[in-house]
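Hi R.,

As promised on Friday, here is the backbone we talked about, encoded as structure tokens. Could you run it through your design pipeline when you get a chance and send me back a sequence?
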């Protein structure tokens, strides 16, 4: 038991040091501030689509990303495109929610006994044992299904940010981005750089907290993973992305997630760095986000501060 607690403590100390001490300064030479506001989870269901479309039509959402692994996803995707062909739609690559596009027997390490993806909590226990080639097949199958709809692919991003947080999987995303010539969500959350501070956690700090808990419960598995999920590993993915010529926003702002109140949103806007930023939002699961994203005063504040709303295809 003492050995268990000691190893858990070592994990926390290692992660805390890696998260706090080795974050390099990032400089962006731009003298402007542009903002993508992307609504995740399009095509989860009709209610989610309605909320996202409301925020696009009446508010400040500039793009969205679609899940494709649910029964009605492709039908809902086609409906949105037919009604609003100018609305940029990316794919929300997913390996933590619902069932895979491929038959479960083709991706056995990615699913539980019910043939469903390991959820965001369970996957930490299994991620080291998930077969890379299975992930590659499933993610490519999701992209192929999206493309089969006839809807233009705007960009790639990631459900629960897992395909970026567990860095070995990010190569799959980069390969597809090059093949399809589309931008991707920046793999490094802005919470990593600590340049935007909000009152209470949120964003990928939630995932990081789960990693710490996982490290305490499974220290022998967790310690070897640290080179793959630490700050240096995140930043290396951004460097490789840039070297590959893949377009990505300068900043991925994750801290609005699970912090969806007007004070937090306006605080983020006040601290918005120069360059192109993306704020991830989820109006389909948060009425407070719908209210914020459709508030005329919020749009006016952005204009007053000289922040230009944009999308992935424009930068």
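Update: got your reply. Pasting your designed sequence below so it's all in one thread:
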């Amino acid at each position: 038991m003492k050995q268990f607690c000691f190893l858990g403590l070592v994990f926390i100390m290692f992660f805390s040091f890696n998260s706090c001490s080795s974050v390099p300064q990032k400089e962006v030479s731009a003298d402007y501030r542009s903002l993508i506001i992307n609504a995740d989870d399009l095509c989860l269901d009709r209610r989610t689509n309605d909320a996202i479309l409301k925020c696009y039509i009446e508010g400040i959402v500039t793009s969205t990303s679609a899940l494709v692994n649910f029964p009605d996803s492709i039908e809902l995707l086609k409906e949105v495109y037919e009604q609003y062909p100018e609305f940029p739609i990316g794919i929300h690559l997913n390996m933590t929610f619902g069932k895979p596009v491929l038959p479960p027997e083709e991706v056995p390490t990615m699913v539980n006994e019910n043939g469903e993806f390991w959820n965001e909590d369970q996957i930490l226990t299994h991620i080291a044992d998930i077969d890379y080639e299975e992930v590659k097949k499933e993610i490519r199958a999701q992209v192929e299904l999206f493309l089969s709809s006839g809807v233009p692919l705007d960009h790639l991003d990631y459900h629960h940010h897992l395909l970026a947080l567990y860095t070995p999987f990010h190569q799959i995303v980069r390969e597809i981005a090059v093949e399809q010539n589309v931008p991707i969500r920046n793999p490094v959350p802005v919470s990593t750089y600590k340049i935007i501070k909000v009152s209470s956690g949120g964003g990928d700090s939630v995932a990081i907290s789960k990693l710490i808990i996982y490290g305490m419960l499974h220290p022998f598995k967790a310690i070897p993973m640290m080179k793959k999920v630490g700050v240096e590993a995140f930043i290396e993915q951004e460097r490789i992305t840039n070297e590959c010529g893949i377009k990505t926003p300068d900043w991925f702002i994750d801290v609005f997630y699970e912090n969806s109140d007007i004070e937090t949103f306006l605080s983020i806007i006040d601290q918005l760095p120069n360059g192109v930023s993306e704020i991830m939002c989820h109006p389909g699961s948060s009425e407070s986000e719908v209210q914020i994203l459709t508030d005329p005063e919020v749009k006016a504040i952005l204009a007053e501060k000289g922040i230009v709303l944009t999308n992935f295809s424009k930068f």
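One thing I noticed while checking it: The chain has a mean pLDDT of 88.

Thanks again,
M.
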